[in-house]
Protein backbone atom coordinates (compact mmCIF):
# COMPACT_ATOMS: atom_id res chain seq x y z
CA UNK A 1 0.00 0.00 0.00
CA UNK A 2 0.90 3.66 -0.09
CA UNK A 3 3.32 4.91 2.54
CA UNK A 4 5.52 7.85 3.51
CA UNK A 5 8.90 7.67 5.23
CA UNK A 6 10.55 10.68 6.85
CA UNK A 7 13.92 11.13 8.44
CA UNK A 8 13.81 10.69 12.16
CA UNK A 9 14.26 13.62 14.46
CA UNK A 10 14.85 15.64 16.30
CA UNK A 11 16.88 17.75 13.93
CA UNK A 12 18.76 20.48 15.79
CA UNK A 13 20.26 23.41 13.88
CA UNK A 14 21.60 26.84 14.61
CA UNK A 15 19.78 29.90 13.34
CA UNK A 16 20.58 30.71 9.67
CA UNK A 17 21.68 27.14 8.94
CA UNK A 18 20.53 25.24 5.84
CA UNK A 19 17.72 22.77 6.40
CA UNK A 20 16.90 19.50 4.66
CA UNK A 21 14.27 17.09 5.90
CA UNK A 22 14.09 13.94 3.81
CA UNK A 23 10.83 12.39 2.68
CA UNK A 24 10.35 9.39 0.41
CA UNK A 25 7.13 7.73 -0.60
CA UNK A 26 5.69 4.55 -2.03
CA UNK A 27 2.55 4.92 -4.09
CA UNK A 28 0.68 3.64 -7.09
CA UNK A 29 0.23 6.34 -9.66
CA UNK A 30 1.27 9.92 -9.04
CA UNK A 31 -0.34 11.28 -5.89
CA UNK A 32 -0.19 14.88 -4.76
CA UNK A 33 2.47 15.46 -2.11
CA UNK A 34 2.33 17.80 0.87
CA UNK A 35 4.34 19.21 3.73
CA UNK A 36 2.42 20.19 6.83
CA UNK A 37 3.79 21.96 9.92
CA UNK A 38 2.57 21.60 13.49
CA UNK A 39 3.61 24.23 16.01
CA UNK A 40 3.49 23.33 19.71
CA UNK A 41 -0.07 23.00 20.96
CA UNK A 42 -1.59 23.71 17.55
CA UNK A 43 -3.20 21.82 14.69
CA UNK A 44 -1.69 21.09 11.29
CA UNK A 45 -1.03 23.83 8.77
CA UNK A 46 -0.37 23.21 5.10
CA UNK A 47 3.13 24.48 4.32
CA UNK A 48 3.42 23.59 0.65
CA UNK A 49 2.30 21.09 -1.95
CA UNK A 50 3.09 19.67 -5.38
CA UNK A 51 0.59 17.91 -7.60
CA UNK A 52 2.73 16.37 -10.33
CA UNK A 53 6.26 15.26 -11.11
CA UNK A 54 8.91 18.02 -11.22
CA UNK A 55 6.56 20.52 -9.56
CA UNK A 56 8.20 22.67 -6.91
CA UNK A 57 6.10 23.77 -3.96
CA UNK A 58 7.26 26.79 -2.00
CA UNK A 59 6.09 28.92 0.91
CA UNK A 60 7.72 31.05 3.63
CA UNK A 61 11.18 30.28 2.28
CA UNK A 62 10.62 26.51 2.30
CA UNK A 63 10.79 24.49 -0.91
CA UNK A 64 10.23 20.90 -1.99
CA UNK A 65 10.42 19.32 -5.44
CA UNK A 66 8.34 16.30 -6.52
CA UNK A 67 10.94 13.80 -7.77
CA UNK A 68 9.30 10.87 -9.53
CA UNK A 69 12.63 9.14 -10.30
CA UNK A 70 13.67 8.97 -6.66
CA UNK A 71 10.11 8.99 -5.21
CA UNK A 72 11.14 11.84 -2.94
CA UNK A 73 9.83 15.19 -1.74
CA UNK A 74 12.57 16.60 0.47
CA UNK A 75 11.89 19.82 2.36
CA UNK A 76 14.57 22.54 2.22
CA UNK A 77 15.12 26.04 3.55
CA UNK A 78 18.18 28.15 3.00
CA UNK A 79 18.28 29.95 6.34
CA UNK A 80 16.18 28.77 9.27
CA UNK A 81 14.89 30.93 12.10
CA UNK A 82 14.04 30.12 15.71
CA UNK A 83 10.38 30.55 14.76
CA UNK A 84 10.67 27.56 12.39
CA UNK A 85 10.92 25.22 15.37
CA UNK A 86 8.01 22.81 14.96
CA UNK A 87 7.16 19.30 13.81
CA UNK A 88 7.08 18.81 10.04
CA UNK A 89 4.98 16.12 8.36
CA UNK A 90 5.23 14.81 4.83
CA UNK A 91 2.01 13.39 3.39
CA UNK A 92 0.57 12.04 0.16
CA UNK A 93 -2.95 12.10 -1.18
CA UNK A 94 -4.32 8.58 -1.57
CA UNK A 95 -7.80 8.92 -3.04
CA UNK A 96 -9.91 10.33 -0.22
CA UNK A 97 -7.32 10.30 2.57
CA UNK A 98 -3.91 11.65 3.45
CA UNK A 99 -1.15 9.16 4.24
CA UNK A 100 1.36 10.64 6.69
CA UNK A 101 4.93 10.23 7.70
CA UNK A 102 5.77 10.02 11.39
CA UNK A 103 6.90 13.63 11.55
CA UNK A 104 10.29 15.27 12.09
CA UNK A 105 10.81 17.58 15.04
CA UNK A 106 12.93 20.60 14.16
CA UNK A 107 14.70 22.56 16.87
CA UNK A 108 16.40 25.81 15.96
CA UNK A 109 18.83 27.32 18.49
CA UNK A 110 19.63 31.04 18.49
CA UNK B 1 -13.83 33.48 6.34
CA UNK B 2 -14.09 31.23 9.38
CA UNK B 3 -11.65 28.35 9.55
CA UNK B 4 -12.22 24.85 10.85
CA UNK B 5 -13.24 24.78 14.50
CA UNK B 6 -13.40 21.85 16.89
CA UNK B 7 -14.92 21.33 20.31
CA UNK B 8 -14.11 20.67 23.01
CA UNK B 9 -10.42 21.54 23.19
CA UNK B 10 -9.65 19.00 25.87
CA UNK B 11 -11.60 16.09 27.28
CA UNK B 12 -10.97 13.52 29.98
CA UNK B 13 -13.00 10.31 29.98
CA UNK B 14 -12.94 7.00 31.79
CA UNK B 15 -12.39 3.67 30.08
CA UNK B 16 -15.70 2.24 28.84
CA UNK B 17 -17.39 5.61 28.45
CA UNK B 18 -18.59 7.16 25.21
CA UNK B 19 -17.46 10.49 23.73
CA UNK B 20 -18.66 12.86 21.00
CA UNK B 21 -16.32 15.30 19.31
CA UNK B 22 -17.55 18.09 17.07
CA UNK B 23 -16.19 19.87 14.03
CA UNK B 24 -17.42 22.86 12.07
CA UNK B 25 -16.10 22.94 8.54
CA UNK B 26 -14.72 25.97 6.78
CA UNK B 27 -17.23 28.04 4.81
CA UNK B 28 -17.81 26.58 1.34
CA UNK B 29 -16.45 23.14 2.23
CA UNK B 30 -18.59 20.01 1.87
CA UNK B 31 -16.15 17.30 2.97
CA UNK B 32 -14.91 16.48 6.46
CA UNK B 33 -12.15 14.03 7.34
CA UNK B 34 -11.21 12.81 10.81
CA UNK B 35 -7.74 11.74 11.92
CA UNK B 36 -6.31 10.32 15.13
CA UNK B 37 -2.83 11.50 16.13
CA UNK B 38 -1.18 9.60 18.95
CA UNK B 39 1.61 11.36 20.81
CA UNK B 40 4.79 11.55 18.74
CA UNK B 41 3.22 10.01 15.66
CA UNK B 42 1.69 11.10 12.38
CA UNK B 43 -2.08 11.29 11.99
CA UNK B 44 -4.02 8.16 11.09
CA UNK B 45 -7.10 8.45 8.87
CA UNK B 46 -10.34 7.44 10.59
CA UNK B 47 -13.00 8.28 7.98
CA UNK B 48 -14.30 10.93 5.64
CA UNK B 49 -17.78 12.33 5.04
CA UNK B 50 -18.80 13.88 1.75
CA UNK B 51 -22.23 15.47 1.45
CA UNK B 52 -23.47 13.61 4.55
CA UNK B 53 -22.33 10.15 3.37
CA UNK B 54 -19.31 8.18 4.56
CA UNK B 55 -16.81 8.36 1.69
CA UNK B 56 -14.05 6.16 3.02
CA UNK B 57 -12.79 4.60 6.20
CA UNK B 58 -9.41 3.74 7.64
CA UNK B 59 -8.45 0.81 9.81
CA UNK B 60 -10.54 1.69 12.86
CA UNK B 61 -13.12 -0.53 14.60
CA UNK B 62 -16.88 0.09 14.31
CA UNK B 63 -17.00 1.71 17.75
CA UNK B 64 -15.62 4.76 15.91
CA UNK B 65 -18.58 6.26 14.08
CA UNK B 66 -19.42 9.58 12.56
CA UNK B 67 -22.05 11.84 11.20
CA UNK B 68 -22.20 14.83 8.89
CA UNK B 69 -25.04 17.33 9.05
CA UNK B 70 -26.71 19.31 6.24
CA UNK B 71 -24.55 22.34 7.11
CA UNK B 72 -21.50 20.03 6.65
CA UNK B 73 -20.47 20.12 10.27
CA UNK B 74 -19.55 16.74 11.66
CA UNK B 75 -19.35 14.58 14.77
CA UNK B 76 -17.02 11.78 15.71
CA UNK B 77 -18.39 9.31 18.24
CA UNK B 78 -16.30 6.75 20.06
CA UNK B 79 -17.98 4.06 22.17
CA UNK B 80 -16.47 1.82 24.82
CA UNK B 81 -13.38 3.99 25.20
CA UNK B 82 -10.03 2.26 25.65
CA UNK B 83 -6.81 3.67 27.06
CA UNK B 84 -5.23 3.54 23.59
CA UNK B 85 -7.89 5.95 22.33
CA UNK B 86 -6.03 8.74 24.13
CA UNK B 87 -4.85 11.02 21.32
CA UNK B 88 -5.32 14.29 19.50
CA UNK B 89 -8.33 14.05 17.18
CA UNK B 90 -8.07 16.24 14.14
CA UNK B 91 -10.81 17.31 11.80
CA UNK B 92 -10.09 18.61 8.31
CA UNK B 93 -12.48 20.12 5.83
CA UNK B 94 -12.19 20.54 2.07
CA UNK B 95 -14.13 21.46 -1.00
CA UNK B 96 -14.97 18.05 -2.51
CA UNK B 97 -11.83 15.98 -1.91
CA UNK B 98 -9.26 18.65 -2.59
CA UNK B 99 -6.84 20.37 -0.23
CA UNK B 100 -7.64 19.72 3.42
CA UNK B 101 -7.66 22.44 6.08
CA UNK B 102 -7.23 21.32 9.65
CA UNK B 103 -8.78 22.44 12.89
CA UNK B 104 -6.78 22.79 16.13
CA UNK B 105 -7.83 19.35 17.36
CA UNK B 106 -9.42 17.88 20.46
CA UNK B 107 -7.11 16.31 23.02
CA UNK B 108 -8.81 13.21 24.46
CA UNK B 109 -7.40 11.54 27.54
CA UNK B 110 -8.83 8.19 28.63
CA UNK B 111 -8.06 7.10 32.19
Element pattern of chain B in H and E:
EEEEEEEEEEE
Secondary-structure-based class of chain B equals: mainly beta
How far is the N terminus from the C terminus of chain A? 41 Å
Question: What best-fitting shape of chain B do the alpha-carbon axes yield?
Answer: globular
Which shape of chain A, going by the Cα principal axes? Answer: globular
Helical coverage of chain A, percent range: under 10%
The tally of beta strands of chain B, per DSSP, is 11
Mean pLDDT of chain B: 93
Total number of strands of chain A: 12
Largest protein-protein interface: A-B, 19 and 24 residues
What is the element string of chain A, with H for helices and E for strands? EEEEEEEEEEEE
Q: If you compute it from the alpha carbons, what radius of gyration of chain A comes out, rounded to the nearest whole angstrom?
A: 13 Å
Can you put this structure into words, describing what you see?
The complex is a heterodimer of chains A (110) and B (111). Chain A is mainly β and 110 residues long. Chain A contains no helices and twelve strands. Chain A has strands at residues 3-6, 11-14, 19-21, 23-26, 33-38, 44-50, 56-59, 62-65, 75-77, 86-94, 97-100, 104-109. Chain A is globular and about 40 Å long. The mean pLDDT of chain A is 94. By secondary structure, chain B is mainly beta. In chain B, 0% of the residues lie in helices and 51% in strands. Chain B has strands at residues 5-7, 10-13, 19-24, 31-37, 44-50, 53-57, 64-68, 74-78, 87-94, 101-102, 106-110. In chain B, strands 2, 4, 5, 6, 9, 10 and 11 form a seven-stranded mixed sheet that branches. The radius of gyration of chain B is 13 Å and the shape is globular. The model of chain B has no long low-confidence stretch (mean pLDDT 93). Classes of the chains: A mainly beta (110), B mainly beta (111). The A-B interface holds A 4, 36, 42-46, 49, 89, 91, 95-103 and B 4, 33, 35, 40-45, 48, 50, 55-56, 58, 90, 92, 97, 99-105.
